[in-house]
Every structure is written in C-alpha cells, then in structure tokens.
Design a protein that fits this description.
Order of helices and strands: HHEHEEEEEE
Number of helices: 3
Shape: globular
Low-confidence stretches: 1-11, 15-30
Structural class: alpha+beta
Distance between the termini: 37 Å
Strand order of the largest sheet: 2-3-4-5
Helix content: 10-25%
C-alpha cells in the first residue's frame, strides 16, 4: 500500500506509512449496512434507532422482511412476514451482522442481546456470511 500511495499521491515514505496505519485502524468487522451496538455493558434493553429507509440488500432481507413506512420516520422499520403468523408483523433490525427482534415501547424501539434470531435462514432472512436463499441465483 505504501508504494501505491507514494506512486499515485506523491507522498514520501513517512507520510505513506502514517496513512497506512490510519486505514488499518479504521477497518470495521461489520458491513456498511449494519447498525453497530455494543451489548457488552448491558444484558437489558437497549434503545435502537432502526434504518431510516429500505436500503438493505435482498441477500439480507430475503423474501420475508418488508419495509413498513410510517408518517413518523422513527417508527418506520423492517418487519418479518412470519410464514406461520399472518396477523402480526414483528419488527426486526440488522445489528452487528445479525438479525434482532425489536420491541416498541414508549415511542421507541428497543432490543436486547437475547433477542437475536439464531437461525435467520429458517425465517427466510440472510446475513453476509449466509445470504438468503431467495436472493441467490443458481445458473
């Protein structure tokens, strides 16, 4: 990387070395579409601000997560069209590269570490490690 920075940007060796360190330190283990929450400090409910628009790829939402738009943006969220329950649409969110159920209380969404969906593929959802089968194209 240092050679590339020197060649394309005209940087000397010390400048290129500093930039490489910054880039390395800022790399994330989470995808750009993923909300990141630190659950280490709590076992209880954590307030969640869900995605602001329907922009998760089909490899994550599969054929079972739908975006429910509300007049109040804070209440808009993805909801699970559960194949066994057609009366209730459970709110869900992609957090820390995992799907979590959300609870609505006092005008806000909440989740907790134990609310993750352990086998999202069984509900038609995907992750970046295991994309939804619905989204995979087999030649």
């Amino acid at each position: 990387m240092q050679e590339t920075l020197k060649a394309c940007c005209g940087l000397d060796t010390s400048q290129a070395s500093q930039i490489e360190k910054v880039v390395t330190l800022e790399e994330s283990q989470y995808s750009l579409e993923c909300i990141v929450i630190d659950f280490l400090d709590t076992e209880g409910l954590v307030e969640i601000v869900p995605q602001t628009r329907a922009d998760l790829p089909s490899t994550l939402i599969g054929g079972t997560a739908i975006w429910v738009e509300s007049e109040q943006p804070a209440t808009s969220a993805y909801h699970l069209c559960h194949p066994y329950n057609d009366k209730s649409l459970l709110a869900i969110e992609y957090i820390n590269n995992r799907w979590y159920y959300l609870n609505w209380d006092r005008g806000k969404y909440y989740t907790e570490p134990s609310s993750y969906i352990p086998i999202p593929i069984s509900l038609g959802l995907g992750t970046f490690q295991a994309p939804a089968a619905h989204a995979l194209k087999i030649p």
